[in-house]
Amino acid sequence: MAAASPPPSPPRPKRPKMSSSSDPEAEPTSPSAAGEGADPGQPRRRLKRRKVAILLGYCGAGYQGMQKNPGARTIEGDLEEALYQAGAVPEADRAAPRRYDWARAARTDKGVSAAAQVVSGRFYVDPPGFTDRLNAQLAPQIRAFGYVRVTNSFNAKKFCDRRRYVYLLPVFALDPSAHPDREAVMASMGSGSELAKCVECSERGRKIPGVMGREGKVPSPGGNGVDAAMEEAVSGLEESGISGGGDANGDGEIGLSGNEKVDLPISGDGTEVEKSEQGLNGAGKCDVPSGSTDASVANDLKLETPVIEEEKLPAVDFEKSNGEEMPPKKGTFSYTDEVKERFNRILKYYVGTHNFHNFTTRTKAEDPAAKRFIISFDANRVVSLDGIDFVRCEVIGQSFMLHQIRKMIGLAVAVMRNCVPESIYDVAFRKDINLNVPTAPEVGLYLDECMFTSYNKKWQDSHEAVSMEPYCEVAEEFRGKYIFPHIAAMEHKEGAVALWLHSLNHRNYPDFRDMDNAGMEAKVGAEVESIEEVPMPNDTVSE
């Protein structure tokens, strides 16, 4: 008889995969990093790639967004090069992110910052000190907080359940009398509560050439959207019978009845006054009609634009003001309980699943991607940065489209300033209506957190959670050092939001004129439908 074979040995249990910061044993990895600091008498170790999630933050100033774009300076472009320089990516995979499973949790727009971005991929992270090596190759305004070992199938974009963004909006933006446009000032004359012309913004407009210029293009030196001389020139052109009307496409039919497809006029992305409205040509000069002989307009157009002056701003006192709820100030407009209640009521219109085709660009109403789910949207706190009070607008959603959050904020501000009635939300999400929605400036927006709840719950026994919790302090320090000072400085120096407020008028957004009728028709239609669905007492109901 043959001897019985010994019983098979039990399988060796797998060791939980944690980040290298909590794992003292460094396994072999890349050949380039293996030779650093090694004993010449010992054989060289071949280092191994690891699938990791890197948690980082950045200030978006000077960058054309997160996503890599040929010919533009982007966060992703600098990060990929830094990974190569730090030895995390081999020469063969340089500038080829697909080869190491690159993915990002969120794609921020131009000028938007992030306090908790997450990217993933297969990198050489050994020997210890990978985070320091990576930061040494990055600009100071981009910082890696740490990294976490993840599963081989992990993808930062696909595994992210929710994203939380914060928009810091100056409190004065909610005041209808602050930074009024020219039309509002003229309409208030003789009413007993006249609005004062904003001289401060006129001076800022002269110092910042092309501040109202089209996004993505270098503004012409002479194009000032809020210059007093330009306003008078626009007035002269309108009196001469030339008016842009805000319709850049030249075609638009307003009719809000029945089930017809309604195409309302669209004029750019709503962040600036169109050239047709200002009477500006490509060279930054005003095309005055031949029939106009107004000498004052011609003289005003000869004004020179002063050079931008450097201003030294006081430091931001974050210990006393950052993140703390500020009490209302006496004698000035403040974020009172009444204002807070109204603003939060307006923001609640966005909560739930809606068709946000009017709150983005290049996405049609019929596209399934236009439907997005907003979990919460509130503005309950006021923070003070460098003497300016900001409302902290926090929105949480599964995912967001291009400019979606900025347009949601833009329309909410327009409603708060009484530029458009609250009934606009009765039609804003309808598929058969196209609206030109204002886009708030990008400077106040930043990515606050990316959440991986489902992944962390599924792999909690074998992998470390992908979370910002271990890096809360360093992330808060980064906000206070780079993101918050940039937001405050842009408002102090250039008046990013203040200048934008001057563009919220019916001339730039002609759709607003018809919103009263549109809202009433939408409400009446909804009521009629509900009445038709309710059975009358004499009707026979079939089961």
From TrEMBL:
Protein name per Swiss-Prot or TrEMBL: Pseudouridine synthase I TruA alpha/beta domain-containing protein
Query: What family classification does the UniProt entry report for this protein?
Result: Belongs to the tRNA pseudouridine synthase TruA family.
Q: Which residues bind substrate?
A: 165
Catalytic residue positions: 109
For this UniProt entry, what's an example GO CC term? nucleus
Q: Which reaction does it catalyse?
A: a uridine in mRNA = a pseudouridine in mRNA; a uridine in tRNA = a pseudouridine in tRNA
InterPro entries with a match to the protein in the record: PsdUridine_synth_cat_dom_sf, PsdUridine_synth_TruA, PsdUridine_synth_TruA_a/b_dom, PsdUridine_synth_TruA_C, PUS1/PUS2-like, TruA/RsuA/RluB/E/F_N
What are the Pro residues biased-composition ranges? 1-11
GO terms under biological process: mRNA processing; mRNA pseudouridine synthesis; tRNA pseudouridine synthesis
User: Its Gene Ontology molecular function terms?
Assistant: pseudouridine synthase activity; RNA binding
UniProt keyword Isomerase present:
yes
Q: Say where the protein is mainly found.
A: nucleus
Record's superkingdom?
Answer: Eukaryota
Is-annotated flag, keyword Glycoprotein? Answer: no
Question: What region holds the Pseudouridine synthase I TruA alpha/beta domain?
Answer: 347-452
Keywords for this protein: Isomerase, mRNA processing, Nucleus, tRNA processing
**Region Disordered: which residues?**
1-47, 237-297
Indicate where this protein resides in the cell.
Nucleus
Q: Where is the composition biased (Gly residues)?
A: 242-255
Which Pfam families has this protein been placed in?
PseudoU_synth_1
